[in-house]
Amino acid sequence: MEKRVTFKGWLLPMLLLAPQLIVSGVFFFYPAGEAVWQSLFIPDPFGLSMQYVGLGNFEYLFNDPYYRASFVTTAVFSTLVTLVSMIPALFLAVLADRLVKGAGTYRTLLIWPYAVAPAVAGVLWLFMFNTRIGVVAFYLNQMGYDWNHVLNEHEAMGLVVVASAWGRISYNFLFYFAALQAVPKSVIEAAAIDGARFWRRFFTIVLPLLSPTTFFLLVVNIVYAFFETFGVIHTITSGGPQQATTILVYKVYADGFVGQDLGSSAAQSVVLLVVVGFLTVLQFKFVEKRVHY
Amino acid sequence: MADMHNEPPPGMVEKRGSGLWLTHVLMIVGVLVIFFPIWLAFVASTHTQQEIAQAPMPVMPGSHLIENYSDALFSGVNVPVATMLVNSLVMALGIALGKIAISLLSAFAIVYFRFPGRRFFFWMIFITLMLPVEVRIVPTYEVVAGFGMLNSYSGLILPLIASATATFLFRQFFLTVPDELAEAARVDGARPMRFFFDILLPMSRTNIAALFVILFIYGWNQYLWPLLITTNPEMNTIVMGLKQMFPSGDDIADWPVIMATSILAMIPPVIVVISMQKLFIRGLVDSEK
């Protein structure tokens, strides 16, 4: 779509674009180019010179069992976060949709966690499951379950998944609720007249009608789990125990800033760029179909 | 859409009686479970360290609310929380307003002008969608350090300010503005910037407000970037400073103060979201399109 009526001149539009282009150039394109460039070199230990190694950093990276493990960790983590945040959200949205009165109040209450930063959410959940004073950890102990996410890899993973998914439930709820309200009442009533009970109507009519929202949320939640959960992991586990919760973004940080291994960190950035590119294309392909302007 | 539901329902598929109560009960249980972590944080922020350390901790608020919050706000652990709140506020406002300003201008240029390289610049902005700061942290850090912007507001704000999302949102909106308005402005001899300020900007008010909510929360909740570039506690934001309040090693964390800080860290974004709920939902749904 294009405007038929436009203004003349090229200097003014260039001036208007300048702020965005300068910021993007300095803080986006230059650093991204730098990442690609650095990924081809290994700096000497004193940072005085760089040695060209071609794809050596990548070769090294993919032979590194810790890096490959991090891929698996990221896959497990993002799958779980997506499921744990979407299923309860759908359930709550279905409930809220059945209510004529009060749905608005519940919605207001459910929006809260969305505004809570992932890092703050991490601290809240850490507090509940703290091995020394956590309430939930205490009652788990009372029931004979010895909770210790500091040592147990599965418990650590479970905790960062729940803490990451928690705020997303709000987000997914809002989208599902809006989508459910848009399902035509006549379709539901027709099915009801045919004698279909609630759950049957839900699985045969409502759920398929929700599939565009579901696909959209799948992609968005995976992107979230990949890139925006750093705060949760850093506050709760710092990637441990034994790197059991080190997702890719956490590893870029740990290798680049804590380990000071710049070549490897840059190579990891490049790998992530490819991943983001893929996810963005996926998102847009899908979004193009969904939105009707 | 929600308004449709306020009319009396046809009744055929609406639940009545016990089914309705069950729905309410399930809904309340859901809300309670989701709210529990926040409630517990609030409770912890009203007790003393001893009361919390004695497992299991109480689940009802205690009497030390004022003490803990003034402790947090005015002395904190590394730096008074009040300082961190100011830093967060500057950062969130800077990011939200900065993004809105540069996006409005560039969307105006792309939609209302024909000039060489328009397409190229459009795609250049588009591509920045694919580069979240998390992916390019080391080189971006080096750029910011090179400019001497570590531990400064400009270092906190500028690298996060370029946003393709906001530009696209405004572009979409400008495309729906009737051509007649620009035509009339041109006939009247109005200069482009006059048209922009007198007509386009006032028309964009709702979109700007909706975007502001989303961007404010985005800026407020940043964690990784402030963590990297603010080594001076005086410049910490509250969301990243929270983790810095935990002692290293085996010392026991000052839970009441930390939990008071958690509550303080979530109050501003929660107020923004709740008070601008309608705009927020609209902005959310629009910006994700």
Automatic annotation (TrEMBL), chain A:
Membrane spanning stretches: 12-30, 71-96, 108-128, 156-180, 201-227, 266-287
Compartment(s): Cell inner membrane; Cell membrane
InterPro entries listed in its UniProt record: MetI-like (IPR000515), MetI-like_sf (IPR035906), UgpAE/MalFG_permease (IPR050809)
PROSITE patterns: ABC_TM1
Protein origin, superkingdom: Bacteria
Gene3D superfamilies named among the record's database cross-references: MetI-like
Principal location class: membrane
UniProt keyword annotations, A-Z: Cell inner membrane, Cell membrane, Membrane, Transmembrane, Transmembrane helix, Transport
Membrane topology: Multi-pass membrane protein
Pfam families: BPD_transp_1
Segments forming domain ABC transmembrane type-1: 71-283
Listed PANTHER family: BLL4140 PROTEIN, SN-GLYCEROL-3-PHOSPHATE TRANSPORT SYSTEM PERMEASE PROTEIN UGPA
Family to which this protein belongs: Belongs to the binding-protein-dependent transport system permease family.
Function according to Swiss-Prot or TrEMBL: Part of the ABC transporter complex UgpBAEC involved in sn-glycerol-3-phosphate (G3P) import. Probably responsible for the translocation of the substrate across the membrane.
Record text on subunit structure and interactions: The complex is composed of two ATP-binding proteins (UgpC), two transmembrane proteins (UgpA and UgpE) and a solute-binding protein (UgpB).
Protein known as: sn-glycerol-3-phosphate transport system permease protein UgpA
Lineage per the UniProt record: Bacteria, Pseudomonadati, Pseudomonadota, Alphaproteobacteria, Rhodobacterales
